[in-house]
Structure formats: C-alpha cells, structure tokens
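Slide 14.
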Amino acid sequence: MSVAALVVLAGLVAAGAALTPRSDTRRSGLSAVLLVAGLALAAALALAAGRVGDWVETAGVLLAVAAAALGGGPVATAVLRAADPDRGPSRRRASDPEVLRGGTWIGVLERTAIAVTVLAGFEEGLAVLIAVKGLGRFNELKAPVASERFIIGTLASGLWALGCVGVAVLLRR
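Slide 15: predicted structure.
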C-alpha cells in the first residue's frame, strides 16, 4: 500500500507539472477534480499502509512537497472559476488571469513553502508566508476583484498544499 501511495503521489507530480503552466488559460475543472480524487486515493493508501520504512517516508515527503507545489495551480484556478459570481464577458472577474498577474508561479512557491514549513514543524511560519504574500500584493489588492482573487486563490492553494502534507504525515506515522 505504501508503494502504491508513492506511485499515486508521483502521478500527481507529473499531472501537476503538465497542467500548471497552462492552468490560467485552460478550463481545468475536470483536471482539478481528477487531481483531488488522486490526492484522496493517495491519502487512503497511505492510511492503509501502516508502518513504513525510512525510504518510503523520505520519498513520501519529497513527493508530497512536489505534488503540493505543482498540483495546486489547476485546483486553485478551478476554484476561482467556480466562485466567479459574474460569468459575463464584460467585466473583469476573479478568474481572469490578468488580475494579479504572476499568480501561477507565486502559487508554486507559496505551496512549496507551506508544505516545507508544516513538515518541518514550524506551523507559525504559515502566518509569515501569508503576511509576506499580502504585503507583496498590497497595492494591487485595493481593487475588489483582486482582493477576491487573492483570498480565494490563497485558500484553495493552501488547502491543496496541506492535503498533500497530510499524505506525507500519514506515511510518517
């Protein structure tokens, strides 16, 4: 079961690597659902694995960090599109990738930092990460659509990263 969990995590890394560079420009609803289902499967397999060896534990941590970094972009984009109250073409929307440009790669770094911070046992670092991100975007967040995109994207991205960390924690127990 533990090797199966690692294989699923590796699949999430590969899928995330393929989908993340295009997640802002492509509709990713189905991709996001498949990624979340894959994460749930990895968690179930890790839970059923029981005691694992050191190499499985180490591989699980490394793959969980990589899956957190790369898989969250399509998930966050899908959540932004689902949360968009106005789907008309005339207004700037929270799902518009031109609002808060660079979010894809900032998200990759953010999810990596979240995963590493939590796995290192420094949960207080999450507050620092969010504060730094907010300060970096402070001037842009004055627009309502930008602040909405910031909050929804940050929460979706962070929850994905924590879900990936959860699989690593299940393998480490």
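Speaker note: The chain has a mean pLDDT of 85.
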